[in-house]
Amino acid sequence: MASKVAAKFVSYRVSQVALASHYTDKEPVVAAGSWDEGPSNRIQLLGYGPELDAEGSPQLIAVHRCHGDVMCLRFDPIYQNLFVGLGTGELVAMATTAEEEPGSNNGSGERQRPRLLRQLGQGWRPSTDSFGSGAVSALAIRDGWHALAGWESGRLVCCSLAVEVPDGGCSDAATLRPASGCGRESVGLDSCCVTGADFIDQNAACTVNSMGQLKLWDLRTGLGQYDKVLTVAGDPKAMHCARRHPAQPHLVATGASGGCLCLWDLRQEKFPVSIVELDDGHVTQVEFHPVQGDLLFVSTMAGQLYAIKLSDSGGGGSAALTDNPHLTAVLPASQKLPVNSFCLGEDFLCAGTEDELLYAAAGVCL
Amino acid sequence: MFQGEAASSQQPESSVALPLPTVEAGCQLGAAWSSLGAVVTVFKAAAAASSRPAVAAASSGHLLECRWSTEFHDCDTLRRLAAESHRVFLTCQRLGDASVGSSAETREALLRCSKEYRALMHDCASELMDSAAAATDEPEAAAFLENQSQLLAACQILWHLVEILWVAPRYQSAAAAPQILLELVDWARLHCPQPDRWIAELLESANATDAPELHQRFWDSLYLLVLQGRTVDARNLLSQHSQAGRQQQLKDAMELLNMPKYSFVRDSQSVRKFDVAHCLWQKDVRVRLEAGLFAAHPQLELLVELLAGDEDAFARPEIVGLCDSWYQLLLARLLLTNPTGSLDCLGREAPEAEALYKRDRPSQRDGDGDGLLDGVLVRLLFDGQVGQFLAEAAGCLGSNWWFVAHLADLLHHCLGGEVGGCSGGGFGAIREHFLLEYSHSMLGRAALWQLAVSYLDYCSNYGRHYQPSPHAAAATPQEALLVRVPPESQRKAEQIFAACHARGLLDSANTVARTVARRALDKGCLGNALTWAIRARDPRLVAAIADKFLLGAGGDSAGLARAASADALDCLATSALLSNRMAFLCQYKLFHDRVSAGQLAEAADVAAQLLSSRMIPRRYWLSLLQDCLPLLELRHQAVFTSAQLFDLMHALAELRQADCAPAERLSVVQASLSDALRRAMIDENFHYSSASSSLMELMLACRFSASANSRHRSWLLRRVSMATHSAGAESSDWFRGSAGASSRFLTPFSSWTRVWKLGSTMYSMKPATLYIDRLELIIKSDNPVCMDKSKPPDTAREPSIPAAGGPSIPQPSNMEVDSAANPAETPTPRSGASQNDGFQVVNRRRRDDKTSAGSERKRQQPDERTDPSLDPKRPKEANAGTYAKVATEPKFKICMEASIGMIDDFLWENDALDIKVEAIRNANGSVILAFKDEAQLELALANLVSISWDTCTTALPPLVVERARPPPPCRRYRAFYSGSRSIEEIRARLLSKNPDLPQDGIRAFKEVPAKGAPGKTLYMGFSAEWEDALKKDDFAAYIGAWKIVFHLLLRRRPAGDRR
């Protein structure tokens, strides 16, 4: 599948990886976060060269120690700020580009290559909970400013990164806070752990939870009440991730326990368009290829990362999964422990595993 | 003995001072093991000995966490070693699964694995050395890193030796021995880089001086090169001698250094060839040596003596002194004296070489020097005692189990169980023991639990479950390990849970899920708790969570609704069945969802099921009943069926008996309930079979309607009467009690000894009253055929015809009230039907002139056809409002008027009877049908064919009640028109009496335009089979034997009937 796969042991269990931008595939920059490492938890910024397996690749660009497990890691696609959800329940924003104001674009339209990790202001956590929200368990970024974050307690918050440059001009005063322009209620509560979230469009978002529900939220009316809830029939299977199709926003892929991969058409009333059971391991992450929308990548707790070609058999021109889809393994068969997370560029894939490996694969288009 | 976290495992014997600041002499210390291994929490115990460490620790305020075996925790390089070697380990397991030491390919693959291990060790050792060099500002850390690096390097040397001796696939081949020797020599050379360093120095200095031989290390290097079998290098070095081109001795020596080299071919032929070549070469060396060619050059002579394999030369102190170890000396001797000998020579000659080596090093004893490489371990390997070697190595390495675990595993796959030096349990047991120890050593750091568990996968005996075993004493099996990994986050919990499931450890998985659920429950995250409790399949926990949900609800309706709004309950599916409580909660949510979705009947169904199944805690019954109130009070729609309402009533009854709810709230529910029940029964044409359960329900309804609207109560009582009548004597006593309890409703009529009798079983009842909101009695002639035509229009207008021989009916005082209320009313109540509101007493008596009635009816027939109310062609609007016309029907029909203006009919079977009946309208609106005495009653009963009445609610369609002969079992009795023929057709057939005409069982009919449902026509008829029974003369007696069943049948205009 992938033309070249390189692996590097990073000496920490890779909890999350995030690709700085889809447009830097030639020299991609990846952020990798660890978990379960206690005080030595960290986020590393790693730069890959054109040759994946070259000596010294990936190059360590920056490292930031965290005081909690890195549960979620997302770059915002415009300003390259790194949003980090921690096991302590804190949501942290980090600047990765030059010493400019966070979120500022240099005007030339070119994205800078991330080269540092600097926390912006204080971490933020919902303060309303009496019992603590638990770890941040889901994170989605919309347009460089807005993040939709979910906590284990079911708390859902739409945050924005607000920059308050004081007199001294120190940009570290940027803070995260509930978004004011995000509907009436920017704080909501799901019934159980929110395990995945993604923005559908400017005004809608979807979340999945550990009860196996896919919920749609209309951000114009706020997070007070969900818009629609979709479930798989039968006993509940915890869902672990959700990602919408890059070109067809009504199409959402979710991964659940028992290797259950579902493709949903949000225009439908209740049930998924197609369900496929991959293997015994839970699906840890799903991603559509950013350009080749009929290509779906799925990582599992059994240690595999598959590329699945979607068929066009779904109604309305939308893609669907065949009953027995052809699974193309991206990682070597020796991978046995869970693939915790992966990130996908046009021609680059990076996956972090439980046995402290960071895979990088080039040529991931079929 | 504790080791602080900072202390490395390198000095396991050393003690570590614990920095407990408040500890003084004599104070008590406590210690508690962590859930995983290799961590102990030490604390100062309180003065009063507490059995609970947590309490004691809290009192002192200081906790000290002591960890050991921490080398994998803080050093990235060693973490990498652990993670990377794990992958190689897994590869080995895959190879081992295929076949243990069988095919050559497997062996080759295992050899590759071994080389990977070594490469990894080498890589990590150099990285550690680099790190140590970089950590100049932290001498302790640098020392630790250097120490680890050396340890790894030594391990790698040993591993290499094991690889040559035991892992390489040519081990068993005889032809392999010389090759193995060469490799061993190579091994010794690789790990003794001295000559190369010397040569480098020498060549550097050679640039300065033209005579390298003058360098002190020139000859030492030469000897060492020869000892290492590197004769080519030796010749090259010798060629650097300043006299190399001139002295013949040197030329000869260089020639002799062309030692034959063995190249491995898989047959013994090549060994023999090499042996011959080697013998010839060595003979040549000896010949030249004995010829004294090198006598003038002692250094050169020693070199040639070594080549000749001279034992004395090897014993020379300068040669022994050159060797770093005895095995280097041994290998050199073997190489030059017996290169084709078997590997047994290694073990045989080892003591001699060792003795020789130690002869010049008196201070060096066993165990001194470089721990691993002091020779003991190598000696064991040379002796072929691999098992012993591993045991010794484990002892030397202390808590570092990495080396022995992986090596033992590799050897296990290469050799199977057939290895020497293993005692008890064979090689597999030793391997497993090391793997257990290794996995256990990783538990000090939570991050490594996945690796630890993965290693335990391959400990088939003690890796999974607890087994009494000396080997497994220190180890933690998977089932114990997985439940102790702290599930700090949901994601980690998922992983632990998945790991348990993947290994089939369902008990552990459940324990993990239960732990997470409990934690979530403690935090108040009920949704999460629920998901995990379901995974744990723990009914008690699910019930506890449901309780929490309900506790939050607080028992009140709003709270319950709030609890049910948790959409986590939506998708529980069969999981909800884990606990009654949860099932209730889900069903309750379903009820609410259905109500909000407008599926009222389904919602009612759910509510009734909930209450009847008794799965709800009683404290929520009232809430649920109150939630049902809006449904009960829907006027236009009967949401609940009567059966469901009975379920609700039962629940209400229990609540009342338990006295656990406020009475006023119960009363509200009760009122709605009885009202709804009445409407439901009407809607359903409620029919009582003799099933006493339904009778009991009805009675219950009646009893609990006591405080409800008396109109409803009366209605219910009426139903009870009918049901009792049909059910037989067994329930009559109860009914009597009930009726007695409700006697206040009967008070106005208590002077009437028997007001109404429903069959023989009720004779003893006194006083009994039938309360009827609206009543229609249709008196039927014994000649049904002529019933209709003998109906004089005027007779029915008679309001009351007293029976000639009957007892006089005392006019109740309320007759005046009636008259007063309707001063304009004529004595025929029919005419002023709609205005006749208020209290009234109506006396009705049939006309006793039977024959004239019959003749009148016949005469009336043509007129009847023109009667607008019966004219099928008449617009329905016209029919609807003119019920008074019914009174123009048979003369023996006694009509009454009730509050809403609809005329009630009695139909007697035998119009010759003198039946006196009074329908008394009570103040509460009900109409009571009253008979003066028992004889009258019996007579009326025996002849009553049908009573039809409207209900009190005009919105409801009219009903017809019939008395009918009960149907045979399992057969529903149909008494009403159901054919497609028009009413005229039926009538024509009836009148024609033509037996040839097909009779469809309809003998009598009646059209009843309903006021509440304009245009609807009600048809009533009798089936032939019981009409026959009615015709019997002894019907009164006959009926005494039967139970009389009242059918409440509602018939609307048949579809397509446009009249």
From TrEMBL, chain A:
It is found in: Nucleus. Its main location: nucleus. It comes from the Eukaryota. Keywords: Nucleus, Repeat, WD repeat. InterPro entries: WD40/YVTN_repeat-like_dom_sf, WD40_repeat_dom_sf. One of its GO terms (cellular component) is nuclear pore outer ring. The keyword Repeat applies. The keyword Repeat applies. PANTHER family: NUCLEOPORIN NUP43 (PTHR22652:SF0). This is WD_REPEATS_REGION domain-containing protein. It comes from Macrostomum lignano. The lineage of its organism: Eukaryota, Metazoa, Spiralia, Lophotrochozoa, Platyhelminthes.
From TrEMBL, chain B:
It is found in: Nucleus, Nuclear pore complex. Residues 828-838 have a biased composition (Polar residues). One of its GO terms (biological process) is mRNA export from nucleus. Residues 788-797, 846-877 have a biased composition (Basic and acidic residues). Keywords: Membrane, mRNA transport, Nuclear pore complex, Nucleus, Protein transport, Translocation, Transport. Its main location: nucleus. The keyword Lipid metabolism does not apply. Residues 784-882 are annotated as: Disordered. It comes from the Eukaryota. One of its GO terms (cellular component) is nuclear pore outer ring. GO terms for molecular function: structural constituent of nuclear pore. Functions as a component of the nuclear pore complex (NPC). Component of the nuclear pore complex (NPC). Belongs to the nucleoporin Nup85 family. This is Nuclear pore complex protein Nup85. It comes from Macrostomum lignano.
